[in-house]
Amino acid sequence: MKKLLFVCIENAGRSQMAEAFAKAAGFDAMSAGTIPSKSVNPDVVNAMREVDIDLSSKVPRLLNMDMLSRADAVITMGCSIESVCPVVLLEKMNVKKIAWNIEDPKGKDFKTVRRIRDEIRDKVYLLLKEIQ
């Protein structure tokens, strides 16, 4: 089974949702951020609760070389801050890289957070079909 690593800047929204959807589908997945937040975005927790996934006990994690070395594929969620973008860290890694340009739910209204959740779910399920 492939080990998937979902990466964003704060590991407080997009990558947490992607990891959760992949795990719910039975895949080996983890997530991390280049500058982790202190907690998962409460709106993300609530949006995921609506689809029966509990992120309330999750804590954002710092991306490290061990995670990268264990991953078969690294999926970046999209970023707009070049100096902390995980893509920059991955350029020299010998790992499959997939870049998703997904809007950050931070500071967005709940309707937008739901839309982002659904977009991530659809992308995760499509990816999982491709790698099975």
Q: What labels would you give this structure?
A:
132 residues, alpha/beta, Rossmann fold, four-stranded parallel sheet, globular
List the helices and strands and how they pair.
Blueprint (H helix, E strand, L loop, with lengths): L2 E6 L5 H11 L3 E6 L8 H8 L15 H6 L2 E4 L9 H5 L5 E4 L10 H22 L1
Parallel strand pairs: 1-2, 1-3, 3-4
Helix pairs in contact: 1-5, 2-5
What does this structure look like?
- By secondary structure, this protein is an alpha/beta fold.
- The chain has one domain (3-131): Response regulator (Rossmann fold), CATH 3.40.50.
- The protein contains 5 helices and 4 strands.
- The chain has helices at residues 14-24, 42-49, 65-70, 86-90, 110-131, and strands at 3-8, 28-33, 73-76, 96-99.
- Strands 2-1-3-4 form a 4-stranded parallel β-sheet.
- The longest helix is centred in the last third of the chain and has 22 residues, at 110-131.
- It is globular.
